[in-house]
Amino acid sequence: MQFINRELQNSGQKLQSKAEVLIQYRKTQTNIELAVETLTLCLPGIICCQLQLVVVSVLQQSVKFFGSRLFSVVMNLQADFMTILLCW
User: Fold this and answer.
1) What integer is the mean pLDDT of 54-58?
2) Residue 59's closest CA among 78, 79, 84, 43?
3) How far apart are CA 32 and CA 11, in angstroms?
4) 40: pLDDT confidence band, cut at 50, 70 and 90?
5) What is the mean pLDDT of residues 64-84?
6) What are the CB-based long-range contacts (under 8 Å, 24+) for 72-79?
7) What is the predicted pLDDT for the residue at 36?
8) Cβ contacts of residue 88 below 8 Å, gap of 6+?
């Protein structure tokens, strides 16, 4: 009888240990899913900021290349581009 009791105790401990590991994996999986969802929601904003940096850099180089008389044209283009990005 004690042998059966001991075997049941050991089996129960193994099962509990595996259940704890499974719970930890599920928590990790849920955290990863939430992180991916959050990053997906932020992605348009990140892309917009990166595009803005590229456009500003190109516009600055254009002003340097073409001179200051095109500065107002370039600034208007930048403003138009920003309006498009904000509406996107």
Assistant:
1) 73
2) 78
3) 32
4) confident
5) 65
6) none
7) 81
8) 44, 48
Dihedral of CA atoms 39, 45, 48, 52 in degrees, nearest 10, equals -110
What are 63's two structure tokens? 């002003």
| 52 Cβ contact list (under 8 Å, min separation 6) | 82, 85
Q: Which residue, 73, 46, 69, is CA-closest to 59?
A: 73
Tell me the pLDDT of the chain averaged across its residues: 76
Q: What is the pTM of this model?
A: 0.49
Question: What is the C-alpha R_g of the chain?
Answer: 30
Biggest distance spanned by C-alpha atoms of the chain? 98
Domain, as residue range, for 44: 2-87
Length of the chain: 88
